[in-house]
Structures are given as structure tokens and as C-alpha cells.
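Database export, one record per block. Field names are fixed; values are copied verbatim from the stored entry.
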Amino acid sequence: MALWACHHEPMTQHLTQAQRAQRTDRARDAAVATARELGLTVTDPLILHDLFSVVVHLAPAPVVARVPTVLPPATSPHDLATRQQHELDTTQWLHEQAVPVIAPSPLTPRRPLQRDGFSLTFWTHVPQDQDAEPDYAANAELTPALHRALRHYPGELPFLSAADPQSMTAELTRLQHHPDLLEAADLDRAQREWQLIEPLVRSRAAFEKTFPDIELQPVHGDSPPANIFPSTHGPLYSDFELICLGPIEWDLAGLPEELVQAYDHSARDQDMREADPDVLAFVNTVGKLRVIATLALIPQLPELSDHLTPAVQQWKQGPFAGGLHL
């Protein structure tokens, strides 16, 4: 379909740098045209980020557009728009509760807008503290407060949609045709691991039966310690694209032990529970398989290869399914 063509390039060859640049330009132009139709003055658009999404400051308007450009082929336009609406609704609610977040722009509709095959959302532009050094331990210590606030979110959210089990299955299947991306023996292992844990990802009932003492609640979905923005007015929670219902451990998946300990220390200080080792092992296993599945997106985003290789090697050296016994 034409609507999705700009996102889903052929998987048989990698995008060239020129094609990559053209996709970025199309995303920026879609954001600028949409903003102008909404009555915003945009004369100096500036691309702030370009990986899975193109993020554009629509200067001089105090508005930032986020335009997803690299998506699993199994993601439908409806799926993406639903996910974006969850993010907009949740962050607006958090903003109204005085939780420090990057909020949706009050100058644009609070819903995803479609243009030229893209689905766009608009956010308040916040100046970045250019002198701030990343402090992931401090960010991990800030995460329990976010979990405390999210407990009270009144909206409906899907269970563990951040794991995207439909795309996980589809991408692992697609890798059968790309031995250049993952060897057959490694793919066989990944598929067997996924068969073991998939029921707990797809079914809330199956998860709760396996972990009966673990409360589910809204969670950020995409490692909040890595998604806290250093604004000139202090740290702000950001990038809730994968907001969903899950265990708090989901937001700690893949973190080094010292960052989990920083989270636990802060949680204890706030009379909140610490991370459960068994649930943490489960979410870490899911996270590693998501890395393997993401190899299928390398043709769309060739630079992913350098980002993913260390994690893939770590997975190869680890025990089957992270040593889980389900």
C-alpha cells in the first residue's frame, strides 16, 4: 500500500545513504507542511534526531514533531496510530498531575496526524541543557517516582504491547531469508526461546499465573533511565511511545546490575517494592529476543548493525532463555 511504502523498503537490499536521506527529507517536509496547515509559523526546521523516528523542531514555533520512519513490517497504520494516541493521552495526564514530562503541544491537536504516508505527533519544544552529562544511575533513581505516578493513570492500556509479539514472530520468520543477518543455528535457538516465553508475553492471564504476586501497572515501556531528557529546567521523562500495562521490571530490562540497584535503593526509600529477580530474568529474556528480531530491520536502517552486534554476541554467550525455567 502506498500509505506504508515510505516506511517499508524492500528487505532484499539495504537502503543506500541517498535513500536514507530522502526518507529523512520526506519526514521533515511532512512535518513542516502539516504544521503550517495547522497555522504554525515554520521557517527554520531543525532535525534534532533521526534513527527510528525523525524528530524535527519546527522553529520558530515552540513545537517538535516526531515522525516514525522505521517500523516492523507487521505494524499497521492503525496499530501505530493507536500506540501514538496512548502516548499522547498518558503524557498529557502526567503533565496535568505536575509530573515532569515533555508534554504534547497545546498548539496542535492531541492526536496523530497522517500525511504523505507518515503518522505524526507534536510536542512542546523544551531547550536542552547542553552541559548536562548523562547520569543513568541518577535517572534510574528517578524511575520509581514515575512508576508511583503511573499507578493512578485512569486510561486503558494493552498488556505488554511494548514487546510487540506479533512483530516478534514475523521478524524471526523473516530472518529465515537473511542468513547474512543471523546464522541458522542462532535463529533456531531464538525461535525456540520465543516459543517458550511467548505465552507469557501475549497473555496477561498466563503471566499472572506464572508470577501471581507481581502487580501489573502502567509502565513507560522503553527504559525510562535512557529516556530522561536533560532540560534547562531539570530532568523530564520522555518518549512514552511504548507505554503499556506490565510489571515495573519491564522498565529495567537490559540495565546493568548497578542501575537496577540504584532503582531498588530509590524504591525502598519511597516504600515501593524492589525488582523481583525472576520477573527481571523474564523481561531480560524478552528484551534480548527483541534485539535478535530487530536484526530484520537492518535493511531499513543499516547503521543498526553496529548498535546491535554487541548485544547479539552477549545473547549467544548466555544460557538458553536466560536460564528461565517455565
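Remark 1: The radius of gyration is 20 Å.
Remark 2: The longest strand covers residues 118-124.
End of record.
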